[in-house]
Write a structure and sequence with these properties.
The longest helix is centred in the last third of the chain and has 25 residues, at 47-71. The radius of gyration is 18 Å and the shape is elongated. It has helices spanning 2-17, 20-26, 34-43, 47-71. It has one domain (2-71). It is an all-alpha fold. Helix 1 (2-17) packs antiparallel against helix 4 (47-71). The protein starts with a helix and ends in a 15-residue tail after the last helix.
Amino acid sequence: MRGSVLTAAILVFADSMKELPMTVLLRPFNFETLATFVHQFASDELLEDSALAALTIVAAGVLPVVLLAVRLPDRNPDGNRASTPK
């Protein structure tokens, strides 16, 4: 059960990091997030200024998924480790 909850939490975090429309709708006034920062500078064609924040969003979305893929072993639906074919 713990692995399933951890997997769900990591996938929700990774997906919500890059969700711009929901961020724009739910953020408080005068509060900038990475997604709104990137959107603001990219729409003003200041791509160099938004590059670091965009790479941070990518890293924050990819690193948890890679960590999850490495740490959780392959399992069958019955909970046993998957055997590799010979």
